[in-house]
Automatic annotation (TrEMBL):
Pfam family, one: BPD_transp_1
Source organism of this protein record: Paenibacillus eucommiae
Membrane topology: Multi-pass membrane protein
UniProt KW Transmembrane keyword: yes
PROSITE patterns given in the database record: ABC_TM1 (PS50928)
Matching CDD domains: TM_PBP2 (cd06261)
Residue intervals of the ABC transmembrane type-1 domain: 73-277
Compartment(s) where it occurs, according to its Swiss-Prot or TrEMBL record: Cell membrane
Family, similarity comment: Belongs to the binding-protein-dependent transport system permease family.
Official protein name in the record: Aldouronate transport system permease protein
UniProt keywords, alphabetically: Cell membrane, Membrane, Transmembrane, Transmembrane helix, Transport
Length: 292
């Protein structure tokens, strides 16, 4: 009886503690969402708004009609779509080739890929390489250096190792070419792994920040995260151009409502991707990690 009372007391305290932590964690998200939809006049009057009386889309309407913000969103969308597609293609093709035992020099290549996960070149060599290739101020400078990841190649190779060689041999007997086997058999079986790593790549490309700071000097080619950082932190800096000041000063809108709306717009799209990939995500990540 005493042990049951002790267990119940522990469960109550545990649930209460976790509920408090959850509230503390979710409150900033709630506050950002509420302020972004608060009527600008009400926000300027009250300052701190937790339960707005008047909801408004003025901040969103202005941001989505502003050419600078729309252009930055388009750059991030291009990175997340084209970059993810190219990265998945390169990673999946390389991992599948390395999973086939008939590949000549498979072990040395794996060792070289493993070395890339242990040692990093730093900042100067990649920058000099991008400069010599003429990719400074080019969107491709944000894709090509991170086109693939050695760690992802190794994990995806573990997934392809689980596909039996007999399946490929049977397809060869049926008259399929190597490309036919890849597109008609291997890729359909690889949807869980492709979904999992596609999500990883999409999030990384959408959140591109540091590479853009290094390689992109033209404000017109900034991704959304650079513009968001400029709007939130560096709005008074002349080095950032006039974009953030323009967003924060026009239309008689409070800068805080614009900032919160920009955060929501930058966060929601990538969050909406996960539900569509959820059924594949857990299986793909687990199989790759166990076999790798």
């Amino acid at each position: 009886m005493k042990s049951r009372m002790t267990d119940r007391s522990f469960n109550v305290l545990n649930i209460t503690f976790l509920a408090i932590i959850a509230l503390i964690t979710l409150f900033p998200i709630y506050y950002i969402f509420v302020v972004s939809f608060t009527d600008p006049d009400e926000y300027m009057t009250k300052g701190l708004v937790l339960f707005p009386q008047h909801w408004s889309l003025k901040s969103y309407q202005y941001l989505l009609s502003n050419s600078s913000f729309v252009r930055a969103s388009g750059v991030s969308g291009f990175l997340a779509s084209v970059g993810t597609l190219l990265s998945l293609t390169v990673t999946a093709a390389g991992a599948y080739a390395l999973s086939r035992k008939r590949l000549t020099g498979r072990k040395p290549i794996l060792m070289l890929i493993l070395l890339t996960t242990l040692f990093q070149p730093g900042l100067i060599p990649p920058y000099l390489l991008m400069r010599d290739l003429g990719l400074i101020n080019s969107i491709w400078a944000l894709i090509l250096p991170v086109l693939s990841s050695g760690w992802y190649v190794i994990l995806m190779k573990g997934f392809f190792d689980s596909i039996p060689d007999s399946l490929e041999e049977a397809a060869t007997i049926d008259g399929y070419s190597d490309l036919g086997i890849w597109f008609r058999i291997i890729l359909p079986l690889s949807l869980p792994a492709m979904a999992a790593f596609g999500l990883f790549y999409a999030v990384a490309y959408w959140n591109t920040f540091f590479a853009a700071v290094l390689y992109i000097n033209n404000p017109e080619k900034w991704p959304l995260q650079i513009l968001l950082q400029t709007l939130l932190i560096d709005s008074s800096s002349t080095a950032s151009g006039d974009i953030a000041q323009e967003l924060a000063s026009q239309q008689r809108l409070p800068s805080e409502t614009l900032k919160m709306a920009a955060v929501v717009i930058a966060t929601v799209p990538i969050m909406m991707v996960y539900p569509f990939l959820q059924k594949h995500f857990a299986k793909g990540a687990m199989v790759g990690s166990v076999k790798g």
